Structures are given as structure tokens and as C-alpha cells.
Amino acid sequence: MDPASFFLVLLRSSFLSVGGQTALPLIRDGLVPSGVVSDQQIVEALTIGRLSTGPGGLYIVSIGYFAMGWLGAILALIAGTLPPLVIIPAESFLRRRLESRWMAGLIRGLALGGAGLVIATSLDLLLPSATRSAPAIWQVALVLVGLAAGVRGRVHPALVIGLGAIVGIALR
Question: Nearest 5°: phi and psi at 143?
């Protein structure tokens, strides 16, 4: 993978995450199948990120280093820090719209969906299988139901995550 494509995978993952390890499913999907990094290297990068000081999302720099050495680490650092530098000024401009009940529910639903994807990816890393495939329809439906429950805001997020985990484990 060339450096520009590598940077775009990480940038997309960073822009679509809500912090911490929520970028992990997109990073893994973009880099592992193409052979840029392995599942083992992702686990090692997560460990380095957890052991080091600073934000939990800095594991992305270790992934960059494993993929392309120092150039990859620098590209990953830029890709990981660029979204907040763009989103914070945009958020201050759009603050009134973001404070609406509908938008708060949408953000909560996206965070819950991201949490579900992180759990699924973590299980996938912990229990590697010989065949990797696209998500099943029930998995997509489960994320959409969690998103809808989060947007409405009438169901406690912990209940949505717990029920999603139970259904996911039962149907796995």
C-alpha cells in the first residue's frame, strides 16, 4: 500500500470515530486484509497505546510504525490529530444545531454503534477465525437497532450495549 492510501485509510478511520478505540474496526478493515499489518501487530499496537501515557487513541501511531516505519508513524500521527483540528472549529460554528435533542440522540446512537463495533472487533481479534467475511445481515440490523434506540433516547445506553452483546454472542 502506498503512503497516500495508507494515510487516507487512517484519516477516514479517525474522522468517523468518536475517540479512543472506536477507529479500530475501520483501521483493521483497511489494513489487515491487504496485508499491511497483521492482527498480531494490531494487538501489539493496542498494548503499546494502553501502556503509554496520553490519549488512548495514540495506538494508531504504533500501527503506522508497524506498517511503514517512521514515515507511517508520522502519517498516522497527522491522520489521528487532523480530525479534531477540523471538527472543533466546525463544532463551535454549529453549536446551536448540535444542542438539539435530535442531534444529541444521533450522536449517542453513533457512539453506541461504535462501541458495538469495537466489541465485535475485539472479539474477532481475540477469537481469530480462518475465514473473514463481510458482516452478516443480523450484525448490520443489530447496529441499526442500537442506533435507533440511541436516537430516541428512551432506553439506557448500558441496556442497549448489554442486549446487543447478548444477541451478538447468541447469533455468532
Answer: -65, -40
Pick the closest to residue 31 from 47, 12, 50 (CA basis). 12
Question: In what helix (H) or strand (E) does residue 119 lie, and over which residues does it extend?
Answer: helix 101-126
CA-CA distance, 116 to 43, in Å (whole number)? Answer: 18
Residue 106: all three cell numbers together: 444521533
Cβ atoms of 168 and 130 within 8 Å: the answer is: no
Phi then psi dihedrals of residue 134, to 5 deg: -65, 155
For residues 97 and 103, is the Cβ–Cβ distance under 8 A? yes
**pLDDT of 37-74, one tens digit each?**
998 898 889 888 887 777 767 888 999 999 999 999 99
